[in-house]
């Protein structure tokens, strides 16, 4: 497997955030997102504080702002959806620049945009400071079913291999003068997909045989056991705890 | 269509998360029963395949292109349990690694995109394959229908979740129209691609297609340029023969009842039947209340908005037969399923006893 050992979002570094055990980071991000989602949307200042908190984490992790903002682009389809909301929602309407907008829709759009962006930013920060293998170990430490973690680890391990196979098929098609232009060419592409499935499935069988011949009996040995000290836990959970305080203030005010 | 955080409120997300966790637990057990310890590598590689095939762009024309969602394809190729696992793992990894879809919305995303599509597609596919003749073409047609319905079905489930826990007050009708409308279009593309892909796999390795188990061609030999059936050397199994005759019975019964309901009722008497006649004669029916479903589109055995009384009655008959067949075979399937499961556990118990007696316990 000559494929890279890190995923596209990972950013190598030696910051304190990188050094945290993965499961503490996963738990922290999950708790943070839950807190963000349950904040009332009328407390606009709370979301600004959340963004500040994430900025602080990014600064500690030495993730540049440009990198973070570029990764936020994945959200664009939902921004388009959010822009539509004020036009279609029900209720009281207000005139802005000659357009009749729904007040409720404006709040809804703000809600989706703010919470969605914060969620994506938190996930991006997690992915850019945690290696792939660590992430899977973290999921396992968080008591996800071992079989599910194994499936996920096989998926990420062979994802690049299968994608490369797809790329080689494309090159083979193109070098024979094929260019997919419209619906008429779907047959050829679907045959590629079918061939890819057969190759993936057969590779799975070979991988399984290779594993069995090396003593695999249904569970993977964990070589590097990661444990988190109390200090590390408290360091990681500082983010969701701060967010929780903000959230409670948001409900109270 | 990955929902982000904050799109569905926290309680409904939590409930969807619980539902997703339950479904995944059931699938884990089911997949392990099907694949044993092969589950992890095979399901992992199929998940990688789904992940890769979502990157395969299908040009629609005018510079736009779409891609496969893969729920229906996974269900047909590797079965419902493994299919749910594969698509769920892809969604999990997309949320954690690529920030595509919110972490709190993961339950919602898995419920709509992994569980609904897979189950709907597999149920439809199996249903159609059992009814249709066992050919490759009917395989492709079933895959088409299964994928076509699965995508709008997932949109419907999403709309339901939105109706319960949506954070914006958009009228439900608008959301439903927009979601289902768009997804019917997406579904057509998904259906074409899924059908073509399943057709391509069935042509080469029909044994790999989970939904096509039992579709086995007889071995043919070419003797002096002519295709001849190879002599059957294997021990004939009694079960398939029974199944085949039962299928003929099935199809005959279905066709007969459809003809009776749809065509013969065309000429049937519009007079009230015996009991109704007695009731009117004796004035019993004065107290009869309108049935609760009197407003339903099929009320009084006629289809609303179809003026011709006979045509309407026939159509209602056909629809009624269809609904009865679906409901009846659903119950039958569940019962038979449970019975075979019981038998299987019994078998396993006897196996265990046999294993316990053997001196060496080798698990391969």
TrEMBL record, chain A:
What GO cellular component is one of the record's annotations?
ATP-binding cassette (ABC) transporter complex
Give me any GO biological process, just one. cobalt ion transport
Provide the topology term for how it sits in the membrane: Multi-pass membrane protein
- Transmembrane segments annotated in the record for this chain: 43-60, 72-89, 109-127, 233-252
Q: What is its main location?
A: membrane
| Compartmental location | Cell membrane
Question: What is the superkingdom listed in this entry's lineage?
Answer: Bacteria
Keyword terms of this UniProt record: Cell membrane, Membrane, Transmembrane, Transmembrane helix
Q: Which CDD domains match?
A: EcfT
Please name the PANTHER family in this protein's record: SLL0384 PROTEIN
Name recorded for this polypeptide: Cobalt ABC transporter permease
- Record lineage: Bacteria, Bacillati, Actinomycetota, Actinomycetes, Kitasatosporales
From TrEMBL, chain B:
Spell out the subcellular localization from the entry. Cell membrane
Q: Which domain of life is it from?
A: Bacteria
User: How does this protein lie in the membrane?
Assistant: Multi-pass membrane protein
Key words of the record: Cell membrane, Membrane, Transmembrane, Transmembrane helix, Transport
Pfam families, from UniProt?
A: CbiM, PDGLE
What's a single GO BP term from this record? transition metal ion transport
Ranges of residues in domain PDGLE: 247-337
Basic and acidic residues: which segments have biased composition? 341-355
A GO cellular component entry from the record = plasma membrane
| Annotated InterPro entries | CbiM/NikMN, PDGLE_dom
Q: Which positions, given as ranges, span the membrane?
A: 7-28, 40-60, 72-97, 103-129, 141-164, 184-204, 249-268, 315-335
| Disordered as annotated region, ranges | 341-364
Keyword set includes Transmembrane: yes
For this entry, the protein name equals: Cobalt ABC transporter permease
């Amino acid at each position: 497997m000559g494929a890279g050992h890190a995923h596209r979002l990972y950013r190598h570094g030696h910051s304190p955030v990188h050094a945290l055990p993965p499961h503490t980071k996963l738990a922290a991000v999950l708790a943070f997102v839950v807190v963000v989602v349950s904040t009332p949307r009328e407390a606009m200042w709370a979301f600004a504080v959340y963004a500040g908190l994430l900025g602080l984490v990014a600064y500690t992790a030495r993730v540049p702002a440009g990198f973070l903002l570029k990764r936020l682009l994945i959200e664009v389809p939902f921004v388009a959806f959010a822009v539509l909301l004020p036009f279609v929602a029900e209720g009281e309407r207000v005139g802005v620049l000659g357009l009749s907008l729904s007040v409720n829709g404006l709040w809804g759009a703000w809600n989706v945009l703010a919470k969605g962006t914060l969620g994506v930013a938190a996930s991006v920060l997690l992915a850019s400071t945690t290696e792939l293998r660590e992430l899977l170990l973290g999921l396992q430490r968080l008591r996800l079913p071992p079989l599910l973690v194994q499936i996920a680890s096989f998926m990420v391990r062979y994802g690049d291999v299968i994608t490369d196979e797809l790329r080689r098929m494309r090159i083979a098609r193109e070098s024979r003068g094929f260019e997919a232009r419209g619906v008429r060419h779907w047959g050829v592409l679907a045959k590629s997909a079918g061939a890819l499935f057969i190759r993936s499935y057969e590779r799975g069988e070979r991988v399984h045989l290779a594993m069995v011949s090396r003593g695999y009996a249904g569970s993977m040995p964990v070589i590097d056991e990661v444990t988190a000290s109390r200090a590390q836990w408290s360091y990681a959970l500082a983010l969701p705890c701060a967010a929780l305080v903000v959230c409670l203030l948001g409900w109270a005010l | 269509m990955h929902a982000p955080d904050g799109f569905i409120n926290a309680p409904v997300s939590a409930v969807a998360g619980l539902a997703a966790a339950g479904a995944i637990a059931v699938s884990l057990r089911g997949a392990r029963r099907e694949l044993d310890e092969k589950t992890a590598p095979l399901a992992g590689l199929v998940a990688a395949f789904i992940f890769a095939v979502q990157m395969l762009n299908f040009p629609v024309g005018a510079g736009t292109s779409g891609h496969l969602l893969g729920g229906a394809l996974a269900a047909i190729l590797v079965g419902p349990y493994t299919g749910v696992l594969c698509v769920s793992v892809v969604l999990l990894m997309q949320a954690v690694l690529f920030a595509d879809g919110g972490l709190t919305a993961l339950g919602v995303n898995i419920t709509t995109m992994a569980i609904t599509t897979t189950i709907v597609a597999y149920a439809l596919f199996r249903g159609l394959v059992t009814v249709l003749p066992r050919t490759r073409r009917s395989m492709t047609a079933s895959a088409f229908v299964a994928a076509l319905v699965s995508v709008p079905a997932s949109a419907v489930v999403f709309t339901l979740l939105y109706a319960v826990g949506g954070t914006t007050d958009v009228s439900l009708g608008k959301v439903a129209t927009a979601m289902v409308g768009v997804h019917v279009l997406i579904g057509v593309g998904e259906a074409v691609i899924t059908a073509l892909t399943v057709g391509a796999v069935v042509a080469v390795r029909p044994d790999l297609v989970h939904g096509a188990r039992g579709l086995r061609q007889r071995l043919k030999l070419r003797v002096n340029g002519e295709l001849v059936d190879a002599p059957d050397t294997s021990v004939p199994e009694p079960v398939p023969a029974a199944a085949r005759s039962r299928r003929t019975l099935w199809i005959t019964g279905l066709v007969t009842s459809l003809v009776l309901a749809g065509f013969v009722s065309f000429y049937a008497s519009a007079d009230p039947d015996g009991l109704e006649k007695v009731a009117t004669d004796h004035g019993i029916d004065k107290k009869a209340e309108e049935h609760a479903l009197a407003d339903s589109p099929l009320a009084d055995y006629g289809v609303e908005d179809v003026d011709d009384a006979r045509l309407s009655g026939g159509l209602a008959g056909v629809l009624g037969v269809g609904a009865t067949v679906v409901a009846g075979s659903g119950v039958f399937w569940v019962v038979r399923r449970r019975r075979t499961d019981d038998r299987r556990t019994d078998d396993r118990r006897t196996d265990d006893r046999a294993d316990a007696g053997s001196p060496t316990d080798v698990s391969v």
